[in-house]
Design a protein that fits this description.
The chain has 91 residues and is α+β, with helices and mostly antiparallel strands. Helix content is 26%, strand content 40%. The radius of gyration is 12 Å and the shape is globular.
């Protein structure tokens, strides 16, 4: 199976509600690498690298609203070249 990369920008009430850490937990459980980081505009950028099925699962979780404390209004995505990363971090 091929490793792919996907970058997502999650908009809504996604900062200050444990969103990055919940995303990290979900991603690690799926065996994905990447990161979730807050952006200055109030959104969260999520880079996910791994198998298509696991990426689709995490993307579905993001689109469904992520953790209960968050409110996701929209998720924008863009395929990317998967960088060589170890683990899934928050930044």
């Amino acid at each position: 199976m091929a490793t792919i990369g996907l970058r997502a920008w999650v908009h809504g009430r996604v900062q200050g509600v444990g969103f990055r850490y919940s995303t990290q937990h979900e991603a690690k459980a799926l065996g994905l690498t990447g990161y979730a980081k807050n952006l200055d505009d109030g959104s969260v950028e999520v880079l996910m690298c791994g198998e298509q099925e696991q990426i689709d699962t995490l993307l579905g979780w993001l689109k469904a609203g992520g953790p209960r404390s968050a409110r996701v209004d929209r998720v924008l995505t863009e395929p990317c070249q998967p960088p060589t990363l170890k683990g899934f971090t928050t930044g």
